[in-house]
């Protein structure tokens, strides 16, 4: 498998392996199965990889515009040195084989609504207590923005970070849309796709410490979404919109598929 490249330098310094990745685990099997297949159609190019923490708990908050994003970002996290754990749609856990793999690898099922939705946050907090990284898509669904910029976020990622006093690290990727377009059903391995992944500095939420009211959570989430948008703008070579797309102002639902 050809090594991934770095946009930071032609030959990036080899970083030490995290203890989490060095220990034998089910992730070794997943990596052996998934990465060779993914590498057929994907070449990674990392930006600011030194910002990705190799130890300790944190929330990784990436943008979301393709159904294949979790595989792309999960593989990226593994390449960068950590075992990826996601908040994933509960329906995926009911799929034969897929559900078993998700449960065995410690992924977290999320119900869209109701009291069970709080169970996901509690499960994520348990992983955080063990020093794990939890990947949370703040948008909660594929962006509705017609130009694939991040849309308005939900507060779950920020709540976990503030309640546990851990960093929330923004991330952005670009190029996934050529591998699998938004709402697409087919993966295009050829020609080989370059996917750029940028890691941001932890978002400073110190002024929200001890505040979990809806106003604070919404404001903190907006700050995180701005950081993600800035990273995406860097990858695209464009200036992101000043405000995040709000589905409710465009007669759109915030979850599920929307081909509008």
TrEMBL record:
Methyltransferase keyword on record: no
Gene Ontology MF term list: 1-acylglycerol-3-phosphate O-acyltransferase activity
Biological processes per GO annotation: phosphatidic acid biosynthetic process
Region (Disordered): 236-260
SMART domains reported for this sequence: PlsC (SM00563)
InterPro entries in the cross-refs: Plipid/glycerol_acylTrfase (IPR002123)
Keyword presence, Transmembrane helix: yes
One of the record's GO cellular component terms: plasma membrane
Keywords assigned: Acyltransferase, Membrane, Transferase, Transmembrane, Transmembrane helix
Domain Phospholipid/glycerol acyltransferase: 58-176
Transmembrane segments: 25-42
PANTHER family associated with the record: 1-ACYL-SN-GLYCEROL-3-PHOSPHATE ACYLTRANSFERASE, POSSIBLE ACYLTRANSFERASE
Name this protein carries in UniProt: 1-acyl-sn-glycerol-3-phosphate acyltransferase
Lineage: Bacteria, Bacillati, Actinomycetota, Actinomycetes, Micrococcales
């Amino acid at each position: 498998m050809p090594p991934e490249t770095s946009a930071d330098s032609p030959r990036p310094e080899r970083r030490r392996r995290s203890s989490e990745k060095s220990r034998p685990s089910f992730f070794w099997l997943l990596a052996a199965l998934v990465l060779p297949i993914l590498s057929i159609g994907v070449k990674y190019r990392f930006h600011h990889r030194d910002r990705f923490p190799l130890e300790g708990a944190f929330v990784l908050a990436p943008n979301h515009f393709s159904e294949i994003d979790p595989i792309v970002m999960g593989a990226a996290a593994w390449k960068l040195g950590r075992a990826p754990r996601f908040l994933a749609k509960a329906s995926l856990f009911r799929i034969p084989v897929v559900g078993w793999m998700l449960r065995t690898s410690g992924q977290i099922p999320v119900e869209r609504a109701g009291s069970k939705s709080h169970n996901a946050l509690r499960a994520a907090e348990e992983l955080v207590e063990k020093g794990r990284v939890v990947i949370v898509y703040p948008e909660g669904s594929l962006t509705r923005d017609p130009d694939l910029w991040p849309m308005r976020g939900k507060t779950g990622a920020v709540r976990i970070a503030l309640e546990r006093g851990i960093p929330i690290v923004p991330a952005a990727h670009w190029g996934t849309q050529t591998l699998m377009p938004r709402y697409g059903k087919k993966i295009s391995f050829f020609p080989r796709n370059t996917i750029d992944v940028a890691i941001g500095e932890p978002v400073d939420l110190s002024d929200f410490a001890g505040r979990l009211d809806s106003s604070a959570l919404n404001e903190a989430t907006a700050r995180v979404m701005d950081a993600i948008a800035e990273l995406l703008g860097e990858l695209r070579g464009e200036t992101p919109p000043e405000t995040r797309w709000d589905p409710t102002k465009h007669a759109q639902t915030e979850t599920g598929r929307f081909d509008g």
